[in-house]
Backbone:
């Protein structure tokens, strides 16, 4: 039989808001299917009260499921591979998600990311808290699929970038040959319950910079990249590589006749692309940087006959293992 001290508290309620001091009567929490819960009620003044209290409840929504559960301990860690993305959430109380990767190649610099989904504005307000992920990387030095004390003490933590409106986490680590790594993901929830999901992944960036031999002077490259033309569409694909101060790819675009052109930059969900157009003298004509991670940048320009350069970069100078697509369509 379970003793009283064995019960694990999953939530608590106080009739006054800790931040504002205002009185509150509604309490929202998430309960797990198939579990039995007990509620303890007491008077905060520890005195008898003649007036009765009433407790009522109603279901708001079905909570989304996490396909990786239960991965709350090292031995239950979800296996993740390079350039593979996993999706999880922190809907359940006291949830922590463990992932594990075994690096079998030569030593290599890998990057990691944890990207929350966009908030669902159609949900009740009390379920629209912010998901703020924190990722810890722990080397499984002895390979026993457990986090020992000395390994825990060497863990490296990554926090959200202050410029990311969705609190995305980005980081990197040196992966050693035949060594495993735990990735411990949890969330700082300070403004209520969150039904947001997040994407987690590790990426290899062992790719050669496409225009590494090009020298850029006053926004004019010595060896620009080129487009492939199909009908009235010019298209190119590339990567944001590991480059000091962030990668920038320069493309040469020749307008043979005055016209109107639509520029579009399609990116992966973990890249916030920026697209800029310069004339032959390196003078800026237009920059498109209106949207966030995973969203395309698009715009239309009227250009005269001549040579132009289109520059692709990442707004936060982050490398990315996924291809981007740059296209120009003549109207």
Residues:
């Amino acid at each position: 039989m379970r003793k009283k001290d064995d019960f694990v508290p999953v939530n608590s309620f106080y009739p006054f808001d800790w931040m504002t001091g205002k009185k509150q009567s509604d309490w929202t929490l998430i309960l797990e299917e198939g579990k039995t819960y007990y509620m303890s009620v007491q008077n905060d003044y520890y005195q008898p009260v003649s007036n009765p209290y009433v407790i009522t409840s109603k279901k708001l929504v079905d909570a989304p499921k996490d396909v990786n559960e239960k991965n709350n301990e090292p031995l239950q860690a979800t296996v993740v591979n390079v350039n593979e993305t996993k999706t999880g959430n922190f809907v359940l109380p006291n949830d922590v998600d463990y992932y594990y990767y075994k690096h079998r190649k030569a030593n290599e610099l890998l990057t990691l990311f944890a990207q929350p989904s966009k908030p669902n504005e159609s949900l009740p307000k009390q379920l629209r808290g912010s998901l703020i992920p924190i990722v810890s990387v722990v080397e499984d030095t002895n390979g026993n699929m457990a986090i020992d004390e000395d390994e825990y003490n060497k863990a490296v933590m990554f926090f959200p970038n202050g410029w990311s409106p969705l609190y995305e986490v980005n980081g990197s680590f040196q992966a050693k040959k035949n060594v495993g790594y735990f990735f411990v993901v949890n969330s700082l929830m300070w403004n209520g319950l969150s039904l947001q999901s997040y994407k987690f992944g590790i990426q290899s960036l062992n790719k050669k910079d496409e225009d590494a031999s090009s020298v850029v002077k006053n926004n004019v490259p010595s060896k620009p990249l080129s487009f492939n033309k199909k009908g009235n569409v010019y298209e190119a694909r590339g990567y944001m590589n590991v480059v000091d101060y962030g990668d920038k790819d320069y493309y040469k675009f020749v307008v043979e006749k005055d016209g109107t052109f639509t520029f579009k930059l399609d990116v992966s969900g973990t890249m916030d692309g920026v697209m800029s157009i310069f004339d032959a003298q390196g003078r800026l004509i237009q920059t498109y940087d209106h949207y966030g991670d995973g969203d395309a940048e698009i715009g239309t320009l009227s250009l005269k006959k001549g040579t132009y350069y289109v520059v692709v970069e990442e707004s936060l100078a982050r490398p990315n293992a996924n291809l981007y697509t740059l296209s120009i369509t003549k109207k």
User: Anything to note?
Assistant: The radius of gyration is 26 Å. The mean pLDDT is 90. DSSP finds one helix and 20 strands in the chain. Residues 18 and 24 are 10 Å apart (CA to CA).
